[in-house]
Amino acid sequence: MYKKRPLFNIFRVATYGLITLALTRPSEAGLGYYSNLISVKDWVIERKIDVNTNEVKCRASVVRYGSWFSARVRLDRNNNLILPLRYSGISKPSDETLKEVKRSLKACEEGVFFLME
Prior knowledge:
Blueprint lengths: L5 H19 L10 E6 L2 E7 L6 E7 L10 E3 L5 E2 L12 H15 L8
Antiparallel strand pairs: 1-2, 2-3, 3-4, 4-5
């Protein structure tokens, strides 16, 4: 005879519900807006995929210096270090850190699939 196992049935229903929810909701990470990809020391690498052109855009900044990107210590489009005026007293990141951040940015921009060595 079949035995009723209420805990198993609850677990099974919850699992199916979560799978259904995950499969029916579109994944939007990085589509149309910047989302965090990885962290490199104090820096965060963010990526955005333009849904119209499929162009991959990446940027790097130090989050602790501002709540929005333009207020942060960051790299510009040419990978030059930008220190906002209000943070003129902070120390410049080491060359080693900048090199690692730039390498991560390059890997990010090379396509949708992000692979670090």
